[in-house]
Specification:
The chain is an alpha+beta fold. The chain has a single domain (2-80), classed as GIY-YIG endonuclease (3-Layer(aba) Sandwich). It is 28% helix and 22% strand. It contains three helices and four strands. The chain has helices at 9-15, 43-50, 66-80, and strands at 2-6, 21-27, 35-39, 57-63. Strands 1-4-2-3 form a four-stranded antiparallel sheet, sandwiched between helices. A hairpin with a 7-residue loop joins strand 2 and strand 3. The protein is globular, with a radius of gyration of 13 Å.
Amino acid sequence: MRGPYPLKPSQINIRIPATVRGVFCLGRKPDQVSYIDRADVSLRNELLKNQKKGYLYFWYENTLGPTEGYNTHCRIYHKHMEEEWLRNRLHPVPPASSYLKCPVCDKPA
């Protein structure tokens, strides 16, 4: 993942084009991931929405589409799921109308 970067509109707009999809992490410290999510439409818009929630840093990884986004989201989630400061502990949900399974734990949709 790229980052950490300050979670500020100027940093988001400089680094991420409006139409890019991806997975992102947010944190209050530059070495602690506290929140993991994905944007199947606009990574930039999702980060801008989340910048008022008290997080100070973001990391991101671009994805080509919803399937790659889900698979990447799962891998990053499993990497950080045991960390005590992770706030969203629910397993990622696949894109609507898909039959994808988690590439790490094989959890069905």
